[in-house]
Each structure stands twice: as C-alpha cells, then as structure tokens.
C-alpha cells in the first residue's frame, strides 16, 4: 500500500511537471463562420482579369539565410493577385539556378534580374540597401518602353494586404497610403483633408519633401514615362524622396488610397537576420545512406546552413532524448 502511494505520487508529479493534464480549458468562442466567403480565391479564369492594368511588383532581394523563406512567403501572397508581373532583382553578381527554378514553379509571371550593389557602397554605413537592384528594375521597365501599368516597390520582407493590389491598380499618376510599423510612430503616411494629401506624418523628416516609405506609394507607368530622367540615387534614406522628385510629383496630384489613408494595407515587418551556421557533422553521416547529406546540400544551396567535418559546433543527434555517438548510427 505504501509503495503504491509513493508510485501514484511519483506518477502524478511526473504528469504535473510535464504539464500533461487532460483537456479541460476555460474557453470562449469569440466568433465563428462556417461559410466560405473568401474574396481572393482564384476561382475565375485568367481571362476574367484580362482588362486590368498590370502591376509591376519590384522586389529587391539579397542572398542571406532568410532569403528563400522570405521569397516563399511573398510569392504566396502574390499568387492571389491577378495581372501581376513580379520583378525579382537580386543583389548579386550572377544568376543562380535555385532561384530561377523556384520562381518558375510559382507560376507567377516574373522576371528575375541580378544586379549587385556596387562594391564601393558595400562597406558604407548606412549602405544603399536594395538600390542597385531597384535601379535595374527601373531600367528593365524603361528598356521595354512599358507605358501602361503600375509600378510598386515591394521589399521581400514586408507584409501585404491583398486589398493593396486592388487599390494601387487604379493609380493614375502617383498614389500614396500609410505603411504600418515604420520607425518611431509605427506608421508613416500622408495627412489627408477633404480627400487631398496636404502633408505627411513620418518621424524622420530630414528635409525630405516626400517623407514616405518605399512601400507607401505606387506609380502609373504612362505618367512615369513622361520623365526620362527618372532615377533612384544611391543616397541612403533619400531613395523615395529623390525618386519621387525625379518624376516631377506635385502634392495636389497625389491619389490617397486605403480609404483616404485611414487603413494600413502594407506593413514594414522585418525578419531577424542571423549568420548562416556551419554545423559539424561527421562525413560518415553525410553520404547517401542517410538523408542528412542531401538535406544539408539543399540548405547550402539556399544559403541557410552548411555542414562541415571539422568546423562549427558539433551537431547533437539524439534518440529517446539522448545524444548518440557516431558509432550508434554506423553499426
Ligand atoms: N536589400 C538588398 N541588398 C542589401 C540589403 C537589402 O537588396 O544589401 C533588399 C532587401 O531584400 C529588401 C530591401 O532591400 O527587399 C530593403 O532592405 P531591408 O528590408 O533589409 O531594409 P529595411 O527597410 O527593412 O530596413
Ligand atoms: Mn525590410
């Protein structure tokens, strides 16, 4: 009896300490819908959208371990959007097969450019991030004499509301709208009175006539084509301002979007950047008897991590909660 009691106590503390209670939660269902009312499902044939102006969505991107997940997430947003051409401009001196393949598979019309930041800027602080590649995209548009459609600069790490695309598609000259999570006020965008943009709210003015974020405006290509000197200089912090100055924008021409700039249709989310690790794994585990060789090969191709026989923290490989020596797997 005594032993049984000890045993019961032991088992119950074990259950407690691992938080394994039977389900018995206090919960409120706040709302629920069993009706499918999704607006953006692609249940129409492509031809139903044929009359819409094309959105040229320019994404500067650069090799780092977060690049592939960022582009995957962004692609999954863009997959919902009809009549869109995705200009993916990589900050690298060459094309790579992996990105090429990946972009092809999404099925979104796209152009994949490679245009590296000039080396003289690489070590400047702050560096002109994403400028060389956005400039390359501008050049691509210019070379094709594209004078219909709408240009939008969409970084690879932002979060886009699908309503953004319906809004900017109607841009006649330049449209603007607030961007969430920018700088000190967690927002940047136009001040609107009686349907007109009259000023700007942004915590970093710094003499900028157009103190807006890159994701906070869209430009009609017919309008832009009237300004052959369109440019985006390598001037960190002033890219938006100088770009908008180069297309002769006047404040009374700006079209406020997002219900007169009362809604957030795009968020300046940022992903934590970390160095891609080297993981020490015995080469005996990296041959084709195990998955690990192929797994680390693909992580390497994506710039996420690499495996080494001699460098980096040793990888723990466990079973039943315990690290196992190499010999265990080779026997
Ligand atoms: N970017 C780039 N090269 C770089 C750094 C950034 O092409 O060396 C791209 C990046 O992928 C993003 C945009 O430029 O689409 C803005 O960079 P980031 O998001 O790091 O800057 P943020 O505006 O969030 O501070
Ligand atoms: Mn960003």
Overview of the structural elements:
It is a single chain. The protein is α/β, with parallel strands linked by helices and 331 residues long. Helices cover 28% and strands 18% of the residues. The protein is built from 11 helices and 16 strands. A 7-stranded mixed beta sheet has the order 3-2-1-4-10-6-11, with helices on both faces. A hairpin with a 6-residue loop joins strand 7 (179-180) and strand 8. The model has no long low-confidence stretch (mean pLDDT 91). The site of uridine-5'-diphosphate has 12 residues, from strand 1.
Present the secondary structure layout.
Blueprint: H1 2-17, E1 55-61, H2 67-78, E2 84-90, H3 97-106, E3 110-114, H4 119-122, H5 131-143, E4 150-153, E5 159-160, H6 162-168, E6 174-176, E7 179-180, E8 187-193, E9 196-201, E10 217-220, H7 221-224, H8 239-246, E11 255-256, H9 258-261, E12 266-267, E13 278-280, H10 292-301, E14 306-308, E15 318-319, E16 322-323, H11 326-330
